[in-house]
Amino acid sequence: MNDLGDRLPMEALDPGASDPRFWARFHVRAMEQAQAELGRRQAYARLTIPEVVFSWRRTLVPTALMAAALAGILLLGQGEASVPLSPLALEEALTQDLVVEPIPSILGRGDELDEPVFLHLVGGF
Amino acid sequence: MPFLLRGLNKKAFRRVRVSALIERTDGDLVTAALRGDTRAFGVLVKRYMRPGYLVALSVTGNAEDAEDVAQEAFLVALERLEDCRDRERFGGWFLTIVRNRARNLLRRERLRRGEGLSPEIVSGTGGPDVDLKRLELREQLERGMEGLSEVRREVLLLHDLEGWKHREIAERLGMPDGTVRSHLHFARRHLRGYLEGLPGRTPSGEES
To answer: Is the dihedral of CA A11, A13, A18, A21 positive or negative?
Structure first.
């Protein structure tokens, strides 16, 4: 297909064909409309970190205060409701809830158990 | 190299900077526009104002509506620039905004007409230098394109009026190259047939 040969006289649909200033006006108008948004973006791009934090003060300060108050209330409530814990020995704590199983018989052999037998029993050396 | 630059006046300097901007990719321009760079956004407007207008025209079929839609679309695109994830594909993203806004406008217009309100009489660009022949041809083309699907109108306008290559259209409209060629072929055949069917007109648009 020959693109150039097949072309239709579409130029008539180009507003710039009958009005040479059309696209220049279009551009100017588009830029005018965008001016405020571009300005906002420029201002935002120039902001430093302290300025950003400062600009958020209206939201940040009340939120921080509310969070602190909420945390305080929660801590106070927890303090009143908590039951004093009874001291627990370490040994007790470790053996608590364990199912009691018979002590392996090898540990009961005492003197009879020599080193090679013990190693054979426990690890297959 | 300050001694070399000393000789350049401000105007020449600006020209160099603008021409450097024109050569920059869409991605670079979008990045600069995100920071509020007026010149970068200006280049994007210049690059996509005609395609934007043509896509809007292919949806609305009306020159004035197309102009309004394309104008608004630039502002919307700037406001939502953060949503343009692939900055190098700004063109396709922008044309989608144009298409959606044009469709919304068309929907609103149809609703308005359905409510029994009289549609506004859309006047041409008018003015003392209006070329009547061109105006007549424009109306004929617009009527001829009414018989085409929206996507074929887009492809036809972007190729035959804006001069985009098949590959460029395929990339920006998000369709295979072969589909673009096919749409273009059928669109031309339809429009040529329409123009040939008009009394006293050749397919090239000239009066016989």
So the answer is: negative
Of B45, B134, B191, the CB nearest to A18: B134
Which sequence spans correspond to the domains of chain A?
A: 1-46, 49-77, 88-125
Within 87-126 of B, beta carbons closer than 8 Å to A belong to: 125
Question: B188 vs A45: CB contact, 8 Å cut-off?
Answer: no
Range with lowest mean pLDDT among A21-30, B120-129, B184-193, B199-208 = B120-129
**ipTM metric:** 0.74
For the stretch A6-45, what's the b/e string if a residue is b when 16 or more beta carbons lie within 10 angstroms of its beta carbon? Answer: eebbbbbbbbeebbeebbeebeeebbeebeebbeebeeee
Q: Which domains does chain B have, with CATH numbers?
A: 9-114 (1.10.1740.10)
pLDDT of residue A47: 76
Question: Which A positions 47-86 lie with beta carbon below 8 A of chain B?
Answer: none
